[in-house]
Design brief:
Length: 1444
C-alpha cells in the first residue's frame, strides 16, 4: 500500500476593493511578493497604534487578485486552478483522497474562488470539467465511475442539497466501525459528464436558496461540502484480472470566519448559547491541536474532532488519509484589519499540519467483505439476545445491511436512482413556480419574470419565476409561485399582465408587501427593475422589458401624483442583470429606511450626532487654533531682542506653518473617523431593526409573551480612555422583555445567534403537534429569553498610567462608568512602579531623532547628578482591592478583567469568597465586593510604551450577575438607601475638603519668633484662644492644604496670594454666644441651585405622567413608562428632602456635623461654592478679581468691618504656607491694646486669598475667625507653674471647608439615562416644553463620557501630585507625560510689590510638553526666589483693604 506524508498546502488570495470600501476611501493594507504576504497596520489616530509593525506571513501560494490592471501580478481563476486544482486532480487519479477548504470572512471571495460565476468559473467547475476531459482521454483498459454528493451544514444540522426531501429535513451523522463517520441517507448520485454535475449543482443551489429564504437563514453562516467519488477500474487484458482505486475529493466552502470573533470566542464577550458558530470554533481547535502535534509539541494531544459535525465528517481530511489544500481569502481594506489578521494566523497554523495519505486500492471489496462479517456477527449476537430484546443491536444490523445494499448497487441502478431523484426535484421546483432553465437571468430577456435577491452572491439571482397573465403568490399549494416562511400568507398577492404589457400587483389584506421599500395596501403598477418584498425576507427584482421607466419619463411627468418613487428609482431602466446597484443590501436598506420613514429614531440619532459633531468640531478647531497661537506667543516672548532678527522670523514662520498643518491634519483625521463611525452606525441600525422585526414576529406567532426593542448603549470598548477620538460613542442593542420577568439587554450578535434557534423552533412548531413541541422546549431550552442569564457588564474603570513616570503609588477609587455613561460604583485600585526607570527628557529639549533614538539608550540622571543608563525593563504592579457602590441588581458573582499593555489574554480578578463565614447582613458591606488581586507585569520600555503610559489608561471591566444563585437576591435592600448612597457618590465627585490652619508667633527673649499657646475653652468655637502678651511684636502663620480621603474633586492649592486681618469684636463669655468661622451664604446658593434643578425635573416628570394618564388606550410600553416615571418622581421627593434636611454624616453639603473634631479644629464645616461649568470644570468669567469665589461669603459681624493686608515675609518650600508680619496697633482697637478682662473674648477674622491650580486656575478667599486673649508678662514662677500644669499644649487652630465645584450633572438630568435610551430608540418626537427630543437628551448625556474621562484624568493627576508633595519631592516632568489643562502662576510671581494689592497673577497658558519651550516646571512646585521683593523691600506698613 502506497503511503505519502505531506503538509497541508496553503494559499492566500486577496480580493479587489468592493463598492462600500471604495466609497469610504479605505486604504489597502496588504502587499504580496512571491510567496510572502505583508499585512500593514491600519492608519489610526490613537496614540501608539501607528507604531505597530507590519506582519509578514509565508505561504505556498499568494494570489494577488486585487488589481486586474497589474497584469504581471494579477492572479485570476485560471492561475488559482493551475496552482491548486491540477495538483488535487492528479492526487485523485493516483488514488489518494483530496480536499480543498476555502476559509475567510463573509464577502472576502470564498464562494467566488470555489464556484466563480458564468464568465469566470471557479475551482469546483474547472476541476470537474478537467476531470471528465481526462477521463475521456483514457484507454479502454481504464474505466471510471464518478459519483457526487452535495450537503450543507447549518447550525450543526446536515441537509442534503441533491435530494428534494433532504433539504427540508436534517440528516443524522453516524460513525460505523468499518465505514467511519458518514451521513445517513445522504444521496450519492452517479454522473457521466460535466453537464450532469453542473445541472446537479445548479439545482442543489436552488434548493439551498429556497430553504434558506424560507427560514431567513444566512448562507454565510453555513458550510457547503461538495464530494466527488472517483472509482477507477484497471483491467489487465492478458490475465483478465481487474483492480480498483477509489478516491474522494472534498470541496468545502466554509462559513464566514468573522462570526467566530464576533460571538466572543476571542474572549471579548462571554460566549452566547448557540450552535451556529460551533463548527468554525471547533475547526480552529482541531487545526491548532494538529499543528502542535506536527511540531512535536503534543504527540498525545487530544484532537476534538467529534465536537462538531463539520470536523467529524472531515476527520480524514485533517491530519488523516488525505492530500489537503486550503485557500484563505482576505479583504485588502483597512477596516477589515482584525478579520484579515485572524484569517492569516489561521492559515499560518494550518500549513503546519501533516497528513498521512494512502492510495485506496481495492477498498470496495475489502469494505463489503468486512461489512458482511459485521452483519453475521450482529445476527449471531441478536439471536442470543432475542429474549432480552436489544433494540440497539437491531439498529446496528439494519444500518450495516443498508450500507451493504448501497455498496453492492450496480452502476446502472445508481444511474437510474439519480434520474429518479432529478425528476422529483424538477417536479418540486416547478410546483413552486421556479424555472428549470439554467440559472441566472440571461435567458428570456423578452419575458416578464421575477428573480430572487440574496445576501450571498452564490445564491443571488439564482431563482427565476416566469409570470403568467394571472400569477398567484402565496404559501398554499394551489398558488402559482409558492413561498414559505415568516410573514407569508396562504394567499399573499396577485400579479397580472394586461394586454398592453402593463403589470400590476394587488396585495391581499394583511399580507405584507413592499415595492421599492414602500408598504402597499392597494393595486400598484410595476416597472422594470422594481424591488419587491413579500413577508419578512423574500426579496425579488422584477424584469419587465416593455415597462422601462427610461422610455416612460414623459408619462411619469404627466402623472406626477405618483411620488412614492425616489429620484434614484428613475435610473432603473437598465437591464436587470446588469443592475448591480439594486442588490439585496440596497433592497433591504430601502425597506428599513422607508418603513421607519421620518419616525426613524436612528435616523434622528444620526442627524443629532452630525449636528453635535459639527458644533464640537468648530469648538475643537478654535481651541486647537488658540493653543497653537499661545505656543507662538510663547516663542515670541522667549526670543530676546539680542537674537538675530532673521533667524527668529524664520523660526516663527516655520512654527506657524507647522501649527496650521497640525490643525489641518487633526481635522482631517477626526472627519475621517467620524465618517466611518457614522457609516458603521447606519449599518448596525438597519441590521438591528431587521432582526428585531423578525424576532417579534416569531415571538408573537408562537405566543411567547416576549417583546424585543432596539435601545442604545455604549460598548465596553468606547468606555475606555484608549478609544479612538471622534468615534461615535453609542451603538444599538436589543432590550428583551418577557411578561412577569426582568428586562435583559442583548448585543446584536447575541440576537443574531438566538434567531437561528428561534427559526428552528418556529419550523418545528409549524410542523409538529403541541405535545412534541413542549417536550422539545424542555430539552433544548427557550431561545426567546435567557433562563440562565450571562454576566452583565457593570462598567469600565480607567486607571491612568501617568504615575509610572514617578516613583509613587497611585491608590485611588476609580469610577466605574456604565454603558449608559453614568458612574456605577468605584473600583479601589493601586498602581505602582516596582522596579526600573522611565526616561525623563528635558522639557526644553528637542524631540528630534537624536534625543528619541532607541529606547535602550535613554540616559537618566540620578540623585547625585551622575548619568546612568536606563533599565530596559520596567516592572509595574496592579492591585485591585475592592469595588464599592455597585448597582444592587448586578452585585452578584462580581469579577473584573483587564488586558495590560501587550498581554494577549485578559487577566481576570475573581472576588474573595470565604465559604466558611456566614454572609454578613450589614447593608454597607453588601455594597462592597472585595478582591485580592495583585499582579506584576514586566514591560520592555519602548517609545510606544512611553506614549501609552503618557496618554493611555488601564481599562478594567467590571462584570456582575443579576441572579444570586438561589433564584433571588441575597439581600433585600430598600431603594431609598441605594438612592442615598448614589447621592453621596455624586456629591463626592464635586466636593473636596480643605483645611486652613492659623498660628500666632511672638518674639521671645532669644530674639526668635515662636508660636504662642492656644488654650481650650468650652465657650469658644474657634478651636481655642491664642494667648498674646501685651506689647510684643507678632507674626501670623497661615497654612492651607486639601484633606485626604474627603471627596474626589481634583483640588490643588498652589499658593497663598494675600493675607488680611480685621473685624475686631468683643463678646461676653456669660451673656453672649461665642463666634466661629461658619457661614451659610454659599450653602444657601448650592441649595437654591439644587432645588431649581429638582423643580425642573419635577415639572418635566409631572408633564410626562399627565401625558400618559390622559391617553385613551395605554400600551404595555406606556404602563411600564408610567411606572418608571412615578418611581423617579418618588425618588425626586426623597432627593428634595436630602437637600433641605440632609442626614448627619450623609456627605451632602450642609449635613450636620457627625464627628468629633480633633483638638484645635472647629466643629462646623462651612461650604464654599466655586460655581464652575459642570462639563469641564472651567471657570465662569465673573469669578476673578473682586468677584473671586468666597469674597462674598462673609461671616456674622463681618459686614462693614475694616481689613488690613499683611505683608508676606516668607513662603514655605514644602507646603502652602505663608508667614506675615502683624502689628496689632494698626487696628487702633483698645481691646487689643489692653489686657483682656476674664469675662471677655476678643475675636478677629483672618482672610487668605489662595491660588488654585485645579480644578480651575482661580482665586479663592477663605476665612478663619480666631479668638485672642491679651495678658501681661508673667513672672518666672507663674510661667513654670502654668507649663507644668498643661499637657499637650496646642499652638494652632484650624477650620475645614467643604469646597463644592458645581451641582452634580445627574441632578440636572430630567430623566434617567436608561429610560431615555429606550425612548430615543422608539423615536418619540418632542418630549417636553424645552422642545428637545429624547434622542437629543440621550445623546447629550452619553457624549459626556468624554468629559467624565477628562475630569478623571485630572483627578488622578492631582492625586499623584499630592502623593509626591507628601513625599517632599518636586515633580520632574518629562516630555512624555500628559499636560494638565490648567497651569497657574508660580509662587515666584507672588514676588511683586504690595502696590498690586496681592490680587494674584494672570494665568499662564503654557504647554509644558512643547519641545521649543525653555520653561521649567516652576509653575507647579516652585519656591520663592531668595531675592524676592518681600525679603528685600522695607516694611512700609499695612495696606488697608477697605470696608466690605
Amino acid at each position: 500500500m502506497k503511503m505519502s506524508d505531506s503538509k497541508v498546502k496553503v494559499a492566500v488570495r486577496v480580493r479587489p476593493m468592493n463598492r462600500r470600501e471604495i466609497e469610504l476611501n479605505t486604504k489597502c493594507i496588504l502587499e504580496m511578493e512571491d510567496n510572502q504576504t505583508v499585512l500593514h497596520p491600519p492608519p489610526s489616530n490613537t496614540k501608539g497604534e501607528n507604531r505597530k509593525t507590519p506582519k509578514v506571513f509565508a505561504f505556498d501560494y499568494c494570489f494577488w487578485s486585487m488589481d486586474e490592471s497589474n497584469v504581471t501580478q494579477y492572479a485570476g481563476q485560471e492561475v488559482v486552478f493551475k496552482c491548486l486544482g491540477e495538483g488535487i486532480l492528479e492526487n485523485a487519479f493516483q488514488g489518494y483522497n483530496a480536499c480543498v477548504f476555502a476559509y475567510g470572512q463573509t464577502g472576502s471571495g470564498k464562494s467566488f474562488s470555489m464556484m466563480g460565476n458564468g464568465d469566470q468559473p471557479g475551482l469546483i467547475p474547472r476541476l470537474c470539467c478537467s476531470l471528465f476531459e481526462r477521463v475521456s482521454k483514457e484507454d479502454k483498459s481504464h474505466s471510471f465511475k464518478v459519483e457526487v454528493s452535495y450537503m450543507e451544514i447549518y447550525n450543526e444540522k446536515v441537509r442534503d442539497l441533491l435530494d428534494p426531501k433532504g433539504s427540508r429535513q436534517s440528516l443524522k451523522v453516524r460513525e460505523h466501525k468499518v465505514f467511519g463517520p458518514y451521513v445517513d441517507g445522504l444521496s450519492q448520485l452517479a454522473v457521466t459528464n460535466f453537464e450532469d454535475i453542473e445541472s446537479l449543482m445548479s439545482e442543489g443551489n436552488k434548493s439551498r436558496t429556497v430553504a434558506a429564504t424560507n427560514m431567513n437563514e444566512e448562507s454565510s453562516r453555513s458550510h457547503a461540502v461538495f464530494n466527488i467519488i472517483i472509482t477507477q477500474t484497471l483491467y489487465d487484458l492478458q490475465s483478465g484480472n481487474s483492480g480498483e482505486k477509489v478516491s474522494k475529493v472534498s470541496l468545502v466552502d466554509l462559513a464566514g470566519s468573522e462570526r467566530v470573533s464576533k460571538t466572543g470566542a476571542a474572549g471579548e464577550r462571554l460566549k452566547e448559547g448557540s450552535n451556529i458558530n460551533k463548527s468554525l470554533t471547533t475547526l480552529g481547535c482541531v487545526i491548532s491541536a494538529l499543528a502542535d502535534q506536527s511540531a512535536g509539541k503534543g504527540k498525545n494531544k487530544f484532537v476534538p474532532y467529534r465536537d462538531s459535525v463539520l470536523t467529524w465528517l472531515l476527520k480524514d481530511n485533517l491530519g488523516g488519509n488525505s492530500k489537503t489544500a486550503m485557500i484563505a481569502t482576505v479583504s485588502p481594506a483597512a477596516d477589515n484589519y482584525e478579520e484579515t489578521l485572524s484569517t492569516l494566523r489561521y492559515a499560518d497554523r494550518a500549513k503546519r499540519i501533516v497528513n498521512h495519505a494512502v492510495v485506496n486500492e481495492d477498498p470496495n471489496a475489502r469494505i463489503i467483505r468486512e461489512l458482511r462479517e459485521e452483519v453475521e456477527k450482529l445476527r449471531e449476537q441478536l439471536s442470543q439476545a432475542e429474549s432480552l430484546k436489544a433494540p440497539e443491536l437491531k439498529e446496528k444490523l439494519e444500518e450495516s445491511e443498508k450500507l451493504i445494499k448501497e455498496m453492492t448497487l450496480t452502476w446502472e441502478e445508481k444511474l437510474r436512482k439519480t434520474e429518479e431523484i432529478a425528476q422529483e426535484r424538477q417536479r418540486q421546483l416547478e410546483s413552486m413556480g421556479i424555472s428549470l432553465e439554467s440559472s441566472g437571468i440571461k435567458v428570456g430577456e423578452d419575458k416578464c419574470f421575477l428573480v430572487n435577491l440574496n445576501a450571498d452572491p452564490a445564491l443571488n439571482e439564482l431563482l427565476v419565476y416566469y409570470l403568467k397573465e394571472h400569477t398567484r403568490v402565496g404559501a398554499d399549494t394551489s398558488q402559482d409561485i409558492q413561498l414559505f416562511g415568516i410573514g407569508i400568507q396562504p394567499e399573499h398577492c396577485l400579479l397580472e399582465i394586461t394586454g398592453d404589457g402593463d403589470v400590476t400587483l394587488t396585495p391581499i389584506e394583511n399580507a405584507r408587501t413592499c415595492v421599492n421599500g414602500t408598504m402597499i395596501y392597494s393595486v400598484v403598477h410595476l416597472w422594470h427593475g422594481d424591488r419587491i418584498l413579500w413577508g419578512n425576507n423574500h426579496f425579488f427584482r422584477i424584469n419587465l422589458p416593455k415597462r422601462k421607466r427610461r422610455d416612460c419619463l414623459k408619462e411619469r411627468e404627466r402623472d406626477s401624483t405618483k411620488e412614492c418613487f425616489s429620484d434614484h428609482d428613475v435610473e432603473t431602466g437598465s437591464e436587470a442583470s446588469s443592475e448591480q446597484d439594486y442588490n439585496y443590501e440596497f433592497a433591504q436598506m430601502e425597506v428599513m429606511m422607508k418603513t421607519l420613514n421620518n419616525n426613524d429614531p436612528m435616523q434622528n440619532v444620526v442627524q443629532v450626532l452630525e449636528k453635535q459633531y459639527m458644533e464640537e468640531k468648530r469648538t475643537a478647531l478654535e481651541e486647537q487654533r488658540m493653543m497653537y497661537e499661545r505656543e507662538l506667543e510663547q516663542l515670541r516672548q522667549q526670543l530676546s531682542p539680542e537674537r538675530h532678527h532673521r533667524s527668529s522670523m524664520d523660526r516663527l514662520s516655520f512654527s506657524t506653518q507647522t501649527a496650521q498643518q497640525k490643525v489641518r491634519l487633526w481635522s482631517e483625521e477626526r472627519d475621517e473617523l467620524f465618517r466611518q463611525s457614522l457609516a458603521k452606525l447606519r449599518e448596525q441600525v438597519v441590521r438591528a431593526n431587521a432582526l428585531v422585526r423578525e424576532a417579534n414576529f416569531l415571538s408573537e406567532d408562537m405566543n411567547k409573551l416576549t417583546d424585543y426593542q432596539v435601545t442604545l448603549q455604549i460598548p465596553a470598548a468606547n468606555l475606555s480612555a484608549n478609544r479612538k477620538r471622534g468615534a461615535i460613542v453609542s451603538e444599538p442593542a436589543i432590550q428583551v422583555r418577557r411578561k412577569g420577568k426582568g428586562i435583559q439587554v442583548w448585543p446584536i450578535e447575541k440576537l443574531e445567534n438566538k434567531l437561528v434557534d428561534m427559526r428552528d423552533h418556529y419550523r418545528d412548531w409549524k410542523e409538529k403537534t403541541e405535545e412534541i413541541n413542549s417536550k422539545q422546549n424542555n430539552k433544548r431550552g427557550d431561545p426567546f429569553y435567557e433562563a440562565q442569564e450571562n454576566h452583565n457588564l457593570i462598567g469600565v474603570a480607567n486607571v491612568f498610567l501617568e504615575c509610572l513616570f514617578h516613583d509613587v503609588k497611585l491608590h485611588y477609587a476609580v469610577p466605574i462608568i456604565s454603558q449608559q455613561g453614568e458612574v456605577a460604583g468605584r473600583l479601589h485600585v493601586e498602581l505602582m512602579r516596582v522596579s526600573g526607570a522611565v526616561p525623563e527628557r528635558l522639557a526644553g529639549g528637542d524631540d528630534s531623532s537624536e534625543n528619541s533614538s532607541e529606547s535602550c539608550n535613554y540616559e537618566v540622571m540620578d540623585n547625585n547628578g551622575e548619568i546612568i543608563h536606563m533599565a530596559k525593563k520596567l516592572t509595574c504592579r496592579v492591585k485591585i482591592k475592592k469595588a464599592t457602590g455597585l448597582p444592587l441588581n448586578l452585585s452578584n458573582f462580581v469579577f473584573s478583567q483587564y488586558t495590560f499593555w501587550d498581554q494577549c489574554e485578559p487577566t481576570v480578578a475573581p472576588p474573595v469568597v470565604i465559604p466558611d463565614m456566614p454572609s454578613q447582613r450589614n447593608k454597607e458591606v453588601q455594597f462592597t465586593v472585595s478582591f485580592d488581586h495583585c499582579k506584576d507585569y514586566v514591560v520592555h520600555v519602548t517609545e510606544e510604551f512611553l506614549e501609552f503610559i503618557a496618554e493611555g489608561a488601564l481599562a478594567i471591566e467590571v462584570w456582575g450577575h443579576r441572579c444570586a444563585g438561589n433564584g433571588q437576591s441575597l439581600w433585600e435592600l430598600d431603594a431609598m438607601q441605594a438612592k442615598t448612597r448614589t447621592l453621596q457618590d455624586r456629591w463626592s465627585e464635586v466636593s473636596r475638603r480643605i483645611e486652613m490652619w492659623t498660628s500666632v508667633q511672638e518674639l521671645n527673649e532669644l530674639g526668635e519668633y515662636t508660636a504662642v499657646e492656644l488654650h481650650q475653652a468650652k465657650d469658644v468655637n474657634t478651636g481655642g484662644v491664642f494667648q498674646l502678651r501685651q506689647g510684643h511684636s507678632r507674626r501670623l502663620q497661615v497654612a492651607v492644604k486639601p484633606v485626604l480621603q474627603s471627596g474626589t474633586l481634583p483640588l490643588m492649592v498652589e499658593a497663598i496670594l494675600s493675607v488680611s486681618i480685621g473685624c475686631v469684636s468683643v463678646r461676653s463669655t456669660k451673656l453672649q454666644r461665642g463666634l466661629d468661622s461658619y457661614q451659610e451664604e454659599d450653602l444657601n446658593c448650592v441649595r437654591e441651585r439644587w432645588s431649581e434643578a429638582l423643580m425642573k425635573r419635577r415639572e418635566y416628570l409631572d408633564e410626562q405622567i399627565k401625558k400618559i394618564i390622559h391617553k385613551q388606550e395605554k400600551t404595555e410600553d406606556d404602563v411600564e413608562r408610567e411606572a418608571r416615571l412615578v418611581e423617579q418622581w418618588v425618588g425626586l421627593t426623597e432627593e428634595r428632602n436630602a437637600v433641605l434636611v440632609p442626614a448627619p454624616g450623609s456627605g451632602i453639603p450642609g449635613a450636620p456635623a457627625h464627628w468629633t473634631p480633633p483638638p484645635g479644629v472647629e466643629a462646623h464645616i462651612p461650604v464654599l461654592f466655586l460655581d464652575l461649568n459642570a462639563d469641564d470644570l472651567t471657570m465662569n468669567e465673573h469669578l476673578t478679581g473682586p468677584h473671586a469665589s468666597g469674597v462674598n461669603s462673609i461671616l456674622p459681624k463681618e459686614h462693614g468691618s475694616q481689613f488690613f493686608y499683611l505683608p508676606i515675609i516668607r513662603h514655605s518650600d514644602q507646603e502652602v504656607l505663608a508667614v506675615c508680619s502683624w502689628d496689632s496697633s494698626i487696628h487702633d482697637s483698645v481691646h487689643l491694646n489692653r489686657i483682656t478682662p476674664p469675662n471677655e473674648r476678643i475675636y478677629l477674622i483672618l482672610k487668605a486669598t489662595v491660588q488654585l491650580s485645579h480644578p480651575a486656575s482661580m482665586e479663592l478667599v477663605i476665612r478663619k475667625r480666631i479668638a485672642v486673649n491679651v495678658y501681661n508678662k508673667q513672672s518666672f514662677t507663674q510661667s513654670l507653674k502654668r507649663r507644668m500644669s498643661l499637657k499637650n499644649v496646642l499652638y494652632s487652630c484650624g477650620v475645614l471647608y467643604e469646597i463644592v465645584s458645581n451641582i452634580p450633572k445627574a441632578s440636572e438630568e430630567t430623566e434617567d439615562r436608561e429610560t431615555l435610551a429606550l425612548m430615543a430608540a422608539r423615536g418619540e418626537s418632542v418630549s417636553s416644553t424645552d422642545g428637545e427630543t429624547y434622542i437629543e437628551k440621550y445623546i447629550r448625556g452619553v457624549l459626556e463620557v468624554e468629559n467624565i474621562l477628562s475630569l478623571e484624568r485630572l483627578r488622578q493627576a492631582v492625586t499623584i501630585k499630592e502623593a509626591l508633595s507628601a513625599k517632599g519631592r518636586h515633580i520632574r516632568r518629562s516630555i512624555s507625560t500628559p499636560n494638565v489643562q490648567y497651569i497657574s502662576c508660580s509662587r515666584s510671581d507672588l514676588s511683586r510689590s504690595e502696590d498690586d494689592d496681592f490680587k494674584g497673577c494672570s494665568e499662564t497658558n503654557l504647554d509644558i510638553s512643547d519641545s521649543s519651550s525653555n520653561y521649567q516646571d516652576a509653575s507647579l512646585y516652585a519656591t520663592l526666589p531668595k531675592d524676592s521683593p518681600q525679603k528685600s523691600n522695607k516694611y512700609q506698613g499695612p495696606i488697608l483693604e477697605g470696608p466690605l
